[in-house]
C-alpha cells in the first residue's frame, strides 16, 4: 500500500494510469490497504463530506473525483446526482478515467469533491479540470488538507481561490 501510495504522489497521472493498466492487481492491493488505514481514523473526511452534502438542497450534480469505492454516491445518491470517477472502476458506480481529462462538458457540476485524492505531480491539471466542469459559483472541496477552492461567481474560467477553512465550513459567494 505504502509503495503504491508513494507512487501516486510522485508520478504524473498518465503514468499512474499506465501503472494500473499494467498491474491491475496492484489497484486492489492499494484499495485494500487504504481501507485498512482509514478504518482507524476517528474522523474520516468522507463522513464530513457526506454530512455536508446531506444538508444541501437535493438535486445537486456532484462530481466525486478520485472516488475510490464511490462511498459518496452510495450514501447520498438518492438525494443528489453523484458521478464518481477513479483510475480504475472497483464497482459499477465508478467511471474509470484519469481525472485530468474527464470527458465531460464545461459547466455541468454544482460541486466537485476531491477527498484525499489530490495526488500526482500534475495536481494543477485536476484543479483546472474541476474548474472547467464546475458551473459558475460551483464549489470544490478538498478534504485532504481542508483547503476549499471556490470559483468566483460571475466569471467562469476566473481565478480559483484557495483558502484554509474549517472542516465543516462551506464557502460560497
Ligand atoms: N475519495 C476516496 C478514495 C481516496 S484514495 C475516499 O475518500 O475514500 C485516493 C484515490 O484517488 C484513489 O482511489 C486513487 O486511485 C485516486 N486517484 C489518484 N489519482 C487519480 C487520477 N489521476 N484520476 C482519478 N483518480 C485518481
UniProtKB/TrEMBL annotation:
Top-level EC class: transferase
Chain segments carrying region Disordered: 152-173
Alphabetical keyword list: Methyltransferase, Nucleus, rRNA processing, S-adenosyl-L-methionine, Transferase
GO biological process, one term: rDNA heterochromatin formation
Name of this chain's protein: Ribosomal RNA-processing protein 8
InterPro entries for the chain: RRP8 (IPR007823), RRP8_N (IPR042036), SAM-dependent_MTases_sf (IPR029063)
SUPFAM superfamilies from the UniProt entry: S-adenosyl-L-methionine-dependent methyltransferases (SSF53335)
